[in-house]
């Protein structure tokens, strides 16, 4: 059990959720996690582990994919959010940046950013926030008049993140920001996540396959495999954990090793049980 102070610090709590697609395919098998205010929490794991499904369960985007949460609960500031559509969730301060960056290709970079503020009527504040986004993403200022569809993958990732920031969120659910980007750009994107976290106090739940970079920037991490959390801990601890290291090595070799195959983890788990 969490004590009262811990609960208060957690903006988001996912309690033992199960998700089923198409009424039959059980994809999340009891996932629990907590996202403390002002922190960067990483949700790690390989292809198909259930990261995107977890984020979509939180932001209520599963219905369009014939998915549903069949067990457990999701609380934001202690309130159930299961019945809120994504727009209502944005009003509560939670916004998701989808995997694969979705920009409005025919709009300019700046027009894309402004769509993120469509619910807001305070135009002076919107203008200030646009300036704030350009401070974090100088590249977007340079490209402000370019058609978004013609910008690079990295720039589109920045547009997607910048647009999310324009809604002045308290929490950003960020899905796989490193996807398809060169290492140097990945580094740059994560530097910006850190700067936004520190500068604006925005809380992040970050889904990433790139465990290595995510654990350098996140405060805490959860490792998902096959729809279950197999390990969690402070990012610094996870980085030094021999099992996690072995898992990476396995990932870089041909034929990724399953985290469950790492024996000492199982042993440790038995001790803890
Ligand atoms: N709409 C869907 N219908 C049926 N099964 C789905 C659907 N979406 C995802 N799945 C399955 O759910 C599992 C988890 O997928 P999910 O996209 O959540 O994984 P992920 O961790 O985000 O992976 P990746 O790193 O590749 O993005 C996978 O086995 C996937 O095939
Ligand atoms: Mg995914």
TrEMBL record:
Entry annotated with the keyword Transport: yes
Keywords on record: Amino-acid transport, ATP-binding, Nucleotide-binding, Transport
Top-rank taxon: Bacteria
Annotated Pfam families: ABC_tran
Domain ABC transporter span(s) in chain numbering: 12-251
One Gene Ontology term of the molecular function aspect: branched-chain amino acid transmembrane transporter activity
One GO process term, biological-process aspect: L-amino acid transport
Similarity field: Belongs to the ABC transporter superfamily.
The protein's name: Branched-chain amino acid transport system ATP-binding protein
Organism: Paracoccus isoporae
């Amino acid at each position: 059990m969490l004590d009262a102070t811990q609960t208060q610090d957690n903006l988001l709590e996912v309690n033992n959720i199960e998700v089923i697609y198409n009424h039959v395919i059980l994809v999340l098998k009891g996932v629990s996690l907590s996202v403390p205010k002002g922190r960067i929490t990483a949700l790690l794991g390989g292809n198909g582990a259930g990261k995107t499904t977890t984020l979509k369960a939180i932001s209520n985007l599963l219905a369009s994919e014939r998915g549903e949460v069949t067990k457990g609960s999701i609380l934001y500031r202690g309130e159930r959010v299961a019945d809120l559509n994504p727009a209502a969730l944005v009003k509560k301060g939670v916004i998701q940046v989808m995997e694969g960056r979705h920009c409005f290709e025919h709009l300019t970079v700046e027009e894309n950013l402004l769509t993120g503020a469509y619910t807001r009527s305070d135009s002076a504040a919107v203008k200030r926030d646009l300036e704030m986004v350009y401070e974090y993403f100088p590249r977007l200022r340079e490209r402000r008049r370019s058609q978004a569809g013609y910008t690079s993958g990295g720039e589109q990732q920045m547009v997607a993140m910048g647009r999310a920031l324009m809604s002045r969120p308290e929490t950003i659910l960020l899905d796989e920001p490193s996807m398809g980007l060169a290492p140097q750009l990945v580094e740059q994107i994560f530097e910006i996540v850190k700067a936004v976290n520190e500068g604006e106090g925005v809380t992040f739940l970050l889904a990433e396959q790139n465990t290595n970079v995510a654990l350098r920037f996140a405060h805490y991490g959860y490792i998902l495999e096959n729809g279950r959390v197999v390990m969690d801990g402070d990012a610094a601890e996870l980085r030094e954990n021999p099992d996690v290291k072995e898992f990476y090595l396995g990932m870089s070799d041909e034929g990724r090793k399953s985290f469950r195959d790492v024996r000492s983890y199982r042993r440790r788990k038995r001790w803890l049980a």
